[in-house]
């Protein structure tokens, strides 16, 4: 790190000009990237994905989202009395988007398409998979249906699961607006920390990091699909990570300057200490995101690849651009110097002394709080959010309520499609119609020797509670046919996602924990500290998931704060994403705090003194860094989609839990309790990992 610091300072102009060029190129890349992003929810190798491909091949449309068009005739009249006008209206809507497949009363003659009061009917529209993020065929179907309904004197509406999930918004959320919101919150924290114009330096570093990452993702998108979610992760997670890393390095530089070091020597020491912690943290975050890359799901894998670039690019920018700027303009922009860095924070030092004095009570209090947060996690359900939680206003919301009020229910939003030999279609429809929980089952189309049977459940099949129904429909279909039968739709897809994502995830988790352990052994020169760090990270994650279940799945507060009803389940791709990011981001604070404690212990040989000084020096930084990340994730939670809200709040609250209960209370208390055993690294392991050994010291207070 010293060699790197001196190399960067010697070539600081070249380094600065390089990153300025990357900033400009990144601005162009960001403007081009949106159109290159994809929405890919496929599950290669899973039965539902194979059936989906066959459905698209034979009938031109898939089951990604089912649009439900609704028509209601005037009071005192019935659907039966207006069959021809209703058929014409739905036909007109279908012709406005000829690539869609439509199933309605006219095409099936099934009375299940008529409401209990005989005044409302509906049609199912399925379209090809969308190629980009934004409005789909609803912009064609809805006005055509409305026009045809008005001319016939009917009321009309259109809804779908994804229209409801968008929160009634016709366009996607603005990445730029959310990033600016997060940056504004971060600036407030930085002004408090530095009380000088240095507050703007981490923001500049964040801008370079984010836009450089956009350039790399643009290159990646030329030979690989990249999910639209990646742009939010880069902008907001990148904002938090880059600022946090800059904050740590700049603060240590400031401290060394306050101790009388000249400017360049202060940069070198900051790089040897804080820079080393930044490097370890960046690699740790990147390692945790391996969990996303090994998952055989394109959506999750692309988020993992994009996510890994965030800490790696941020680390590279911080370890090169920051020392270049500090060595040149650092002292000039560190004005006015209101806050002094020569001594540790009095408040955090007093807090650390209290923790050390009452360490057993502190450990017990922290564990009680964590257990209370963890308890709800045992009710976790994986799937998709309930329809009721997706929107609280708008035309799709009103149409969904019409379906429910008329006795049709919201199961029509998540039909199951069965692909089977045409000769067995009627038998399959009859057999699946008898399954408890099925509203109706109709032959939705025939193409040569292949037919599609649409099975409409009474309730939406979006989580694990629908598994018995899905299995029952599958068994009935296979029992009624001698040929090959495939099934797709929301219920089967949720089942297959769970299999694809979580079947081998415990092994991935174990591998990541082991790699992280090895990295931290080298960083801390200790066996016990890395074990404790990994275990506490897992405990912290369990607490986060407990909070997510309590707040979102069970709805204790989601309606009051976000006007979102209980989701009933957590979307299948969210837990693995939350784990991957929080495991790495939370470990950042562990590295920052323990690296400083290790440094102080090496200087004094006193564990309690190391705890007090370490917390006194890092407490304000870690809390400020957590607040910065919290503002970034709060911006993410402002998106209209429920899934993005869940992701943003989970990451934000997770960071706060980790920075307060875990790192500010439990970590220093445990280090104090464990004493000299924290710092032990035997010779044989040190040689294996090529680091300096750390023999077990005599009992503290006893000199030899």
UniProtKB/TrEMBL annotation:
Domain SSD: 194-328
Top-level taxon: Bacteria
Keyword Methyltransferase included in the entry's annotation: no
Transmembrane segments: 180-200, 205-223, 229-250, 277-299, 305-330, 361-380, 505-521, 533-552, 572-595, 621-640, 646-666
Location within or outside the cell: Cell membrane
UniProt topology in membrane: Multi-pass membrane protein
Keywords assigned by UniProt, alphabetized: Cell membrane, Membrane, Transmembrane, Transmembrane helix
Predominant localisation class: membrane
Xref: InterPro entries: MMPL_dom (IPR004869), Mycobact_MmpL (IPR050545), SSD (IPR000731)
Stored PANTHER family: MEMBRANE PROTEIN MJ1562-RELATED (PTHR33406), MEMBRANE PROTEIN YDFJ (PTHR33406:SF13)
Protein name: RND superfamily putative drug exporter
Source organism (scientific name): Aeromicrobium panaciterrae
UniProt lineage: Bacteria, Bacillati, Actinomycetota, Actinomycetes, Propionibacteriales
């Amino acid at each position: 790190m010293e060699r790197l610091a001196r190399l960067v300072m010697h070539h600081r102009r070249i380094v600065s000009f390089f990153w300025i060029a990357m900033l400009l190129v990144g601005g162009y890349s960001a403007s081009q990237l949106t159109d290159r992003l994809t929405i890919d929810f496929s599950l290669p190798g899973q039965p539902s994905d194979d059936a989906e491909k066959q459905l698209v091949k034979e009938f031109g449309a898939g089951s990604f989202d089912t649009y439900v068009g609704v028509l209601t005739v005037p009071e005192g009249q019935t659907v039966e009395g207006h069959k021809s006008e209703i058929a014409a209206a739905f036909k007109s809507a279908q012709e406005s988007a000829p690539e869609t497949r439509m199933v309605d009363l006219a095409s099936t003659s099934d009375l299940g398409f008529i409401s209990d009061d005989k005044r409302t009917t509906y049609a199912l529209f399925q379209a090809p998979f969308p190629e980009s993020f934004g409005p789909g065929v609803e912009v064609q179907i809805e006005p055509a249906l409305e026009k045809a309904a008005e001319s016939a004197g009917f009321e009309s509406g259109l809804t779908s699961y994804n229209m409801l999930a968008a929160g009634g918004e016709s366009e996607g959320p603005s990445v730029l607006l959310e990033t600016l919101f997060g940056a504004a919150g971060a600036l407030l924290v930085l002004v408090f920390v530095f009380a000088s114009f240095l507050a703007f330096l981490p923001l500049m570093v964040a801008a370079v990091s984010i836009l450089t990452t956009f350039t790399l993702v643009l290159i990646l998108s030329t030979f690989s699909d990249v999910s639209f979610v990646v742009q939010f992760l880069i902008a907001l997670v990148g904002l938090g990570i880059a600022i946090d890393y800059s904050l740590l390095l700049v603060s240590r530089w400031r401290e060394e300057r306050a101790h009388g070091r000249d400017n360049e020597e202060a940069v070198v020491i900051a790089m040897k200490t804080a820079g080393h912690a930044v490097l370890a943290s960046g690699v740790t975050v990147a390692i945790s995101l391996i969990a996303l890359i090994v998952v055989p799901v394109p959506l999750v894998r692309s988020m993992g690849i994009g996510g890994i670039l965030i800490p790696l690019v941020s680390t590279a920018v911080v370890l090169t651009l920051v020392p270049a700027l500090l060595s040149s303009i650092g002292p000039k922009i560190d004005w006015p110097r209101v806050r002094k860095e020569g001594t540790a924070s009095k408040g955090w030092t007093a807090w650390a002394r209290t923790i050390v004095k009452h360490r057993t009570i502190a450990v017990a209090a922290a564990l009680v709080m964590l257990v209370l947060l963890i308890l709800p996690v045992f009710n976790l359900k994986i799937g998709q959010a309930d329809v009721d939680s997706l929107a609280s206003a708008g035309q799709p919301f009103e149409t969904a309520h019409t379906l429910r009020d008329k006795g049709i229910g919201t199961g029509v939003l998540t039909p199951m499609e069965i692909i089977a030999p045409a000769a067995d279609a009627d038998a399959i429809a009859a057999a699946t119609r008898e399954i408890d929980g099925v509203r109706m089952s109709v032959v939705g189309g025939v193409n040569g020797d292949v037919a599609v049977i649409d099975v409409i459940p009474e309730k939406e099949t979006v989580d694990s509670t629908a598994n018995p129904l899905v299995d029952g429909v599958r068994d009935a279909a296979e029992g009624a046919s001698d040929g090959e039968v495939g099934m797709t739709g929301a219920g089967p897809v949720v089942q297959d996602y769970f299999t694809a994502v979580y079947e081998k995830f415990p092994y991935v988790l174990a591998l990541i924990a082991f790699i992280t352990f090895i990295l931290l052994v080298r960083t801390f020169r200790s066996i016990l500290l890395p074990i404790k760090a990994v275990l506490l990270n897992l405990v912290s994650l369990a607490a986060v998931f407990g909070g997510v279940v309590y707040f979102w799945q069970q709805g204790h507060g989601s309606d009051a704060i976000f006007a979102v009803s209980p989701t009933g389940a957590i979307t299948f791709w969210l837990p693995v994403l939350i784990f991957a990011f929080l495991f790495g981001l939370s470990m950042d604070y562990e590295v920052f705090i323990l690296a400083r404690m290790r440094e102080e212990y090496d200087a004094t040989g006193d564990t309690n003194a190391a705890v007090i000084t370490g917390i006194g020096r890092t407490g304000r930084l870690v809390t400020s860094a957590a607040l910065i990340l919290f503002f970034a994730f709060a911006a993410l939670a402002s998106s209209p989609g429920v899934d993005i809200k869940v992701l943003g709040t989970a990451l934000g609250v997770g960071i706060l839990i980790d920075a307060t209960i875990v790192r500010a209370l439990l970590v220093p208390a445990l280090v104090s309790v464990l004493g000299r055993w924290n710092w032990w690294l035997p010779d044989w392991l040190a040689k294996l990992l090529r680091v300096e050994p750390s023999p077990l010291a005599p009992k503290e207070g006893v000199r030899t």
